[in-house]
Amino acid sequence: MELASEERKKRLEALKQKKELRFRTYEPTDEHLKQHKQEAPKIGPKANEVEETIEVMTKRIHEEAMEEEQNIKSELDLSNLAPKKPNWDLKRELEPKLEKLERQLAVAITDLIRERLRAQKDISQTQYLEKPVHE
User: Fold this and answer.
1) pLDDT tens, position by position, for the chain (135 residues)?
2) How far is it, in rounded angstroms, from Cα 11 to Cα 2?
3) Alpha-carbon distance 35 to 25, whole Å?
4) Is the Cβ–Cβ distance between 40 and 25 less than 8 Å?
5) Rounded to 5°, angle at Cα 125 from 119 and 128
6) What end-to-end distance do the CA atoms of the chain give, in Å?
7) Whole-angstrom Cα distance, residue 88 to residue 93?
8) How far apart are alpha carbons 16 and 18 in whole angstroms?
9) Cα 47 to chain center, whole Å?
10) How far is Cα 133 from Cα 135, in angstroms, rounded to an integer?
11) pTM (2 decimals)?
């Protein structure tokens, strides 16, 4: 175990000595540190190409956006985007309320029918009782 720790210590010391100072984004003020300054690496698909000016880039981006907009306009069919009926959103919002009202209406209608049947039953019973019996 001690042997493994000694080997590890030696490897760490070797790494410390091997490390060099490298400044990519930091601009050192000390003359001794300026020796270790490196150029920042170029990253991205156009890293090796010549840098474009801002004007050229904005013009190119603007042209691409205009072309894309033209393509979208030519592919866009408004009849497919418009709803079939102009009141579809009202129907969507009122549908749950209407379902509740329809249930209440059905209950009210059945109550009215029951009351009429009871009234007719009462009338028919009283008619039988009031009729004179034939002798």
Assistant:
1) 788 888 988 888 877 776 666 766 777 788 877 777 777 766 766 655 656 677 888 888 999 999 988 887 777 666 666 656 777 788 888 999 999 999 999 999 999 999 999 888 877 776 665 555 554
2) 14
3) 14
4) yes
5) 140
6) 129
7) 9
8) 5
9) 34
10) 6
11) 0.31
